Automatic annotation (TrEMBL):
InterPro entries: Dimeric_a/b-barrel, MLI_dom
Superkingdom of source: Bacteria
Extent of the signal sequence: none
Domain Muconolactone isomerase as annotated: residue spans: 1-84
Source lineage: Bacteria, Bacillati, Chloroflexota, Dehalococcoidia, Dehalococcoidales
Protein name from the UniProt record: Muconolactone isomerase domain-containing protein
Protein species of origin: Dehalogenimonas etheniformans
Amino acid sequence: MKYLVTGHQVIPGAGHTDQVNYLRAAKAWVKRHKEAGQLEAVYSFTDGGGVFIMNVSSHEELMKLLLTFPLSPLTQWSVRPMIDFVESADIIINTLKNFA
């Protein structure tokens, strides 16, 4: 299952040293989960926060994974499930063709 996950830090780190440590840990987390195939894409927004495209087997796995992100206790998440465009289009076409 694929998810578009956006997040932004809503609680600041205690100071610059803490923020650097959080970001170093976050970089290692991203690398590890990209290598495992759970993260397909990771980007930061220029004004703070960022976006993941995640590929996991369930909502529960997604929740567990997000809770392990080093900045998670400081982050507000928004999660949107995604479906392949062609599959989505076919579902809509097949549903609506009887009404067209």
